[in-house]
Amino acid sequence: MRYLPKSPAERQEMLSAVGAKTIEELFHSIPEKYRLKKPLNLPAAMSEHEVVQYFSERAKENSDGYTSFLGAGVYNHLRSVITDTILQRGEFLTSYTPYQAEITQGTLQAIFEFQTLMCQLTGQEVANASMYDGSTATTEAVLMAERLTGRGRVLVARSVQPEYREVLRTYAKNSGLHVEEFGYTPAGTVDTKALSGLLKDDVCAVVVQSPNFFGVIETLGPLAESAHAHGALLVAAIAEGVSLGAVKPPSEADIVAMEAQSFGLAPSYGGPYAGVVASKDRFVRQMPGRLAGQTVDQEGRRGFVLTLATREQHIRREKATSNICTNQALCALAATVHLTLLGKEGLREMAEQNIAKAQFALGELEKIPGVKRAFSGPFFNEFTVEFPKSVRLVNAELLQEKIIGPFVLGTTYPELTKNALVCVTETTTREQIERLAAGVRKALAA
Amino acid sequence: MNEKIKKATRHTNQNEGLIFEKSSPGKRALDWPPLDVPKVDPTKLLGEHHRTSGVEGFPEVSEIEVLRHFTRLSTWNYAIDLGMYPLGSCTMKYNPRVNEFVARLNGIATEHPYQPQELSQGCLKILRLLEKCLLEITGMDAVTLQPAAGAQGELTGLLLIRAYLQKQGNARKTVLIPDSAHGTNPATAVIAGYEVQNIKSNADGQIDIEHLKEQVTDDVAALMLTNPSTLGIFEQRIPEIAEILHKKGALLYMDGANMNALTGVTRPGDLGVDVMHLNLHKTFSTPHGGGGPGAGPVAVKKILEPFLPIPVLVEREGGKFALDSQRKESIGRVKAFAGNFGVLVRALAYILAYGPGVRQATEDAVLNANYIRKGLEGVYDLPYTRPSMHEVVFSDVLQKKNGVNTMDIAKRLIDYGFHPYTTAFPLIVPGALMIEPTESESKEECDLFIDAMKAIAQEAAVTPEIVKTAPHTTRVKRLDEVGAARKPILRWKPEVKRSEAAD
Predict the structure, then answer these.
(1) Fewer CB within 10 A of the end CB, N or C, for chain B?
(2) Neighbouring-strand partners of residue A256
(3) B392 touches chain A (CB under 8 A)
(4) CATH 3.90.1150.10 residue ranges in chain B?
(5) Cα separation of A209 and A217, whole Å?
(6) How would you classify the pairing of strands A302-306 and A372-373?
(7) Cβ pair A343:B289 closer than 8 A
């Protein structure tokens, strides 16, 4: 087998050296009745060509050739070929977690740069080396707030990505956390009155998302004040990181949980992505996940190491701030390379293109009789529209035009059955937007 | 330098500062297609929300500087592509490049998790085939591909156990964990809402059955067992252990990190395991990437199937696949979307390349470990003498006589051109050297490793200082970890006065 670097002769030599006649002897510590007598029933071994063929055929059975207007937590953005060029370097791709710092300075410095970029983006003071994704980052941020305040109640806005909320509930069930939700206003922003009603001195965290799931940008200052007035922390989740190129960062939040997928990671049917937890320096000892820190070596040279490891499972075991071990390092590297390529002006321009295209798309859709925008708050690259007809039926028609229509909000918000979440990015062309509008018009006229 | 060092030589290596230190206003690396819709004024639209200038401190560099920056950084790393990683329980095997190719295919990398399921049949078929293969390999009844890593798999597994026991009327309070376990085990148990009770290993490094009988009370939900153990030794009485637990209504969780010793040779499901996780970034060759991404699928016996996390892959009429989130008894969602799909693709590519011949990989892995064990027996102390499977654990007892410990030996191994083995773990072996070569190492590489370790043992006896102050040939020497933790600098800041930089 091409992945095994031994000739039959070498195997024999090594067996002799070990004092065994057959390889089976080396498995005698497994009780005989449990040793398999037949090969596993797996598909026959494939050559490299056949492996490529298998996946190429599967690739043809997906959405190739369709234009998509989906966002809802996963975003199509331009990626440079350079990102993959770097990621494919064996010294990054096939390297281990940087516990042995002297021979992993490449990884460690890249992590340090990632942490810096995340702080700059989010307006926070410290950021970790990654979590699995935005949903688990949000959950870990809440658990961090629980540790920091010693309280067990969490108030989550319904306008936070539905799957993020589901993941939080799964984790909360077993850590004694009590999760309650509060709603949104006709503007699409969080209902601060409802929040006030729920806020008491037993709350550890108020969780909001901005831009929220409906695409609307939240005003965090007053929310932070309300939370703080009751001794609670404000957790801000961000699913669309490119928004930070044009939208003020959530510096008022105590903890930020961001999904970094928008920064150079392909949608890849849901993963792998990279979550980030960013927060204030004074909370760092309660942060989950790895942290790379700057230091010096014995000869005074600058270098980087994993640090504050006493928070982590391999040192602290039961008392760790999180059980996370393997995180999403290569994905974080992709984000680092991507953001470095974009640079200060590039991210700003990308963000502005998103805004322009989304505004244009809204304009085109609003020209259609019966279609109007739901929610009035400012938005970035996603907005919610109301159709006079079932969104599902409209989308079914759009599929005929090879268009994957907007997200059906009714699937997770029973009160929003007529609403669709349209996402447009810098990758969406004017022609595609016009086709969407034409397709929607046709579907509604039918 | 030292003629005993055969695998590595010093070489001119590029310096490179932080990317922020190369930044200069006006430089850019990416250009844009021009806007094809009317420009808008963001301040008018966003009002007070508008971030009027770019992100402060963000780098401004050219394309070539970015490429050089990261390429230079990469040359400072050791990697599997360069040579063996003898890291115990990490299973640092070859990451096949065809896996990278297929994961990037148009139609694979490009798919949105919310696109219509009828336009995702390719993805769903991939998931289904991987599920079937993993079930065949593990001998279990059902599997979830959701968890993003081993630790998340462990959590999922414990939540499944909790849900099952809760349905019976009592979720119970305690999880038993051997003192040789990986740190994620106890950390996870706590997050799952359980108390941890340690189980001691006996003199053979196995679970002490008599103690186990005493410790398994009606309060115990499960035992988390790694098999082979972190000593590389097969837990021979596993079926008995399973029976003891089952008699008291408790379940057996197997940490599958060491599956590389078992694939194709035996199946955990046959041994009485109720639930287990796999590490696709270990046994199934997906790349470590400097610390992830990974994937930690969880395989279960039928009794736990109703509680699997959503979404669950189901087959509908006409052979169409779908992701089903309407599962009344499910523990819920553990991660957004459908798992680390890109990682799952790579693992399937690995399995398809091997087919039933995957047993050969296991055999070579065990052969390599035993060959190294034989080569180093007598040179290093072997605390547990039962047969080793895919990894072997020595201790630094002999070398400690001259004040040389496992960390020193590991650092000196770097000068010999290898990545260190796992130091100081498992905790039950003071001064542990945990070595797992994997099947990806040739006889030549194994011989080089044995020679290096022998040479270092010799140095420890005769010239211990060179070992205690290693490494000597790296870009940076031993780093001040105490200082790093005492005064953490966790990000670059323009105004911070930095100590003498490497460039």
Answers:
(1) N
(2) A236, A278
(3) no
(4) 357-483
(5) 8
(6) unpaired
(7) no
Is B38 close to A360, i.e. CB distance below 8 A?
yes
What are the start-end ranges of the H helices in B20-149? 42-46, 63-74, 97-103, 121-138
What is the enclosing helix (H) or strand (E) of A278? strand A275-279
Candidates A188, A189, A168, A192; CA nearest to A180 is: A168
Say if A35 is an interface residue toward chain B (CB within 8 Å).
Answer: yes
CA distance B292 to A94: 10
Q: Which CATH architecture best describes the domain B101-356?
A: 3-Layer(aba) Sandwich (3.40)
Place of tokens 């669709």: A420
Sheet of strand B275-278, all strands in order from the earlier edge strand to the far edge: B142-144, B298-300, B275-278, B251-256, B220-226, B174-178, B195-199
Q: What share of chain A is helix, strand, coil (3-state, %, to 5)?
A: 45, 15, 40
Q: Where in chain B is the domain with CATH 3.40.640.10?
A: 101-356
Q: Do B92 and A96 touch (CB under 8 A)?
A: yes
Is the Cβ pair B352, A133 closer than 8 Å? no
Task: Give burial (CB, 10 Å; 0-12/13-18/19+) of B372.
Answer: buried
Confirm or reject CATH 3.40.640.10 for domain A81-338, answering yes or no.
yes
Residue with tokens 């399937």: B348
pTM score: 0.97
Cβ within 8 Å of B, A 177-216: none
- Spatial distance between the Cα atoms of A279 and A124, rounded to a whole number of angstroms: 5
CATH topology of domain A67-78+344-445: Aspartate Aminotransferase, domain 1 (3.90.1150)
> Amino acid identity of B395?
S
> Cβ contacts of residue B362 below 8 Å, gap of 6+?
B260, B261, B262, B263, B264, B265, B390, B439
Does residue A297 sit at the B interface (CB-CB below 8 Å)?
Answer: yes
Q: How far apart are CA B74 and CA A107, in angstroms?
A: 7
Strands B220-226 and B251-256: parallel
Per-residue pLDDT of chain B (503 residues; tens, 9 = 90+): 467 899 999 999 999 999 999 999 999 898 888 999 999 999 999 999 999 988 999 999 999 999 999 999 999 999 999 999 999 999 999 999 999 999 999 999 999 999 999 999 999 999 999 999 999 999 999 999 999 999 999 999 999 999 999 999 999 999 999 988 888 899 899 889 999 999 988 888 899 999 999 999 999 999 999 999 989 999 999 999 999 999 999 999 999 999 999 999 999 999 999 999 999 999 999 999 999 999 999 999 999 999 999 999 999 999 999 999 999 999 999 999 989 999 999 999 999 999 999 999 999 999 999 999 999 999 999 999 999 999 999 999 999 999 999 999 999 999 999 999 999 888 889 999 999 999 999 999 999 999 999 999 999 999 999 999 999 999 999 999 999 999 999 999 987 555 545 44
Flag if A59 and B105 touch (Cβ within 8 Å). Answer: yes
Identify from B22, B74, B288 which residue to disrupt to test chain A contact, counting A C-beta atoms within 10 A and taking the largest count.
B74
Q: Which of B31, B309, B282, B289 is nearest to B143 (CA)?
A: B309
Cα distance from A315 to chain B (closest Cα, Å)? 7
Interface ipTM: 0.97
Q: Among all residues of chain A, which has the CA nearest to that of B484?
A: A295
- The residues spanned by each domain of chain A are 67-78+344-445, 81-338
Q: State phi, psi for A210 to the nearest 5 degrees.
A: -150, 125
Alpha carbon A281 to chain centroid, angstroms: 23
Judge: B353–A344 Cβ closer than 8 Å, yes or no.
no
Q: Residue A146, SS3?
A: helix
Comparing CB atoms, the residue among A4, A328, A348 nearest residue B293 is A328
The nearest CA of chain A is from the CA of B445 a distance in Å of 10
Judged by a CB distance cut-off of 8 A, whether residue A65 touches chain B is no
